[in-house]
Write a structure and sequence with these properties.
CATH class of the largest domain: Alpha Beta
Strand order of the largest sheet: 1-10-9-4-3-2-5
Helix content: 10-25%
Largest sheet: 7 strands, antiparallel
Low-confidence stretches: none
Structural class: alpha+beta
CATH superfamily of the largest domain: Naphthalene 1,2-dioxygenase Alpha Subunit, Chain A, domain 1
Number of strands: 19
Shape: globular
Mean pLDDT: 93
Length: about 400
């Protein structure tokens, strides 16, 4: 009933294997296309054992490079930045152009006589290339410069995603220059994924927080290594959706296709798409029992006045007296996640409790729901299969 051992969720050795054979060998989410709009803008991301940055060149082309100087390996660029004309190592001032070519060294002839009278970009010391791709308005990197195309990797699942035109939406945050949600969760990243794709828990853990969706009519399955999921709204919620929606409705979603699209893109990013929001749900493993979750949200472009008007209509909608925003248990919502009426807090609580149980000698997996939990084992099988294909379990 379980395709991975307990050690896959608790041991440093297994965590290190994942960094080497899973996250260093797959396309990894880096950001949104609007993060680097101008030549010289860049963004960096950790892809397993590799720190990689994407930079927009003077020709407006996106390129990806391993974020280390070819001299001594010093990190070149920090998280995100604007309008670089060149890339200079802070350690010894080796400088590269936006195409990754070495263009200058301080005191070249004195310190490096073997490079005298040679063109620097022909000395084999240019930046190591990686791959960059765009999928549904998202930037991805792959540590291999000859990686399979991003559409080859995600192509099978694309027909099952929502009809949202992501490029037409705007990022929504309550404060400028902040992402919508960031949280460090005390659980292995795979436990969080398994919670995300577990259909069985929706009508139980979230019986009062996600009850506006018709869980009985959910459709889900696999396309390659990726999980897809769709469920419709409850009829009375849908009938009042123009008023009940928290934000202005997304225009690119036809009325007959409104619902919750919640795919999981292998290995570590989910997308949640509904009538008024499009979100990324990105996991970065930090340790065997710690994971960073970052959610970024996009909504229909509209004025502050339109947002305020929609919020007012939503507050007055009678459907909210029946659906959502009530805790599973009574209690102090500020101290008890299960009384909060917040489905994210409910999920985090459940994941952290499961992680704690893994240390018990009595831990075991009981009977599993044939339909509602089948995706969990399939995901575990995909993790094992990918790691095995990249040498994780070869005999030393």
């Amino acid at each position: 009933m379980h395709a991975l051992p307990v050690e896959a969720y608790t041991s440093q050795e297994w965590f290190d294997l994942e960094m080497k054979t899973l996250f260093s060998t797959t396309w990894q989410f880096a950001g949104l296309v609007e993060d680097i709009p101008e030549p010289g803008d860049y963004i960096s991301v950790q892809a397993g054992n590799n720190n990689i940055f994407i930079v927009k060149g003077r020709d407006h082309r996106l390129r990806a490079f391993h974020n280390m100087c070819r001299h001594r390996g010093t990190q070149l660029l920090r998280a995100v930045g604007k309008t670089q004309k060149a890339i200079t190592c802070p350690y010894h001032d080796w400088t590269y152009d936006l195409e990754g070519k070495l263009i200058s060294l301080p005191k070249k002839e004195v310190e490096f006589p073997e490079l005298k009278d040679k063109k620097l970009h022909e000395c084999g010391l240019n930046l190591h290339e990686a791959s960059v791709g765009i999928f549904k308005g998202m930037l991805f990197v792959h540590p291999d410069k000859d990686a399979p195309s991003i559409m080859e990797f995600f192509g099978e699942v694309e027909p099952y995603l929502g009809p949202h035109v992501v490029e037409e939406l705007m990022e929504y945050t309550e404060k400028p220059n902040e992402v919508a949600y960031t949280k460090e969760i005390n659980a292995n990243w795979k436990i969080i994924v398994e919670n995300y794709i577990d259909h069985y828990h929706l009508a139980h853990l979230h019986e009062t927080t996600l009850n506006m969706y018709d869980h009985a009519k959910a459709e889900f399955g696999w396309a390659g290594p990726h999980y897809w999921f769709y469920e419709p709204l409850m009829p009375d919620y849908l009938a009042d959706i123009d008023n009940a929606a928290l934000y202005p409705l997304i225009k690119s979603v036809p009325r007959e296709q409104i619902g919750a699209y919640v795919p999981w893109l292998f290995p570590n990013i989910g997308i949640t798409e509904d009538e008024a929001e499009w979100n990324t749900f990105h996991l970065t493993p930090l340790a065997p029992d710690r994971t960073l979750l970052v959610i970024r949200s996009k909504t229909e472009p509209a004025s502050e006045r339109e947002y305020a008007a929609q919020a007012s209509r939503s507050n007055r909608s009678p459907v909210w007296s029946k659906y959502g925003n009530r805790g599973k248990y009574d209690g102090d919502w500020e101290d008890d996640p299960m009384a909060s009426g917040d489905f994210m807090l409910e999920d985090v609580y459940a994941c952290e409790q499961q992680q704690k149980s893994l240390s018990s000698p009595l831990f075991q997996i009981g009977a599993t729901a044939q339909r509602g939990e089948y995706a969990v084992k399939r995901f575990q099988e995909e993790v094992y299969k990918h790691m095995a294909a990249h040498g994780a379990f070869d005999k030393k």
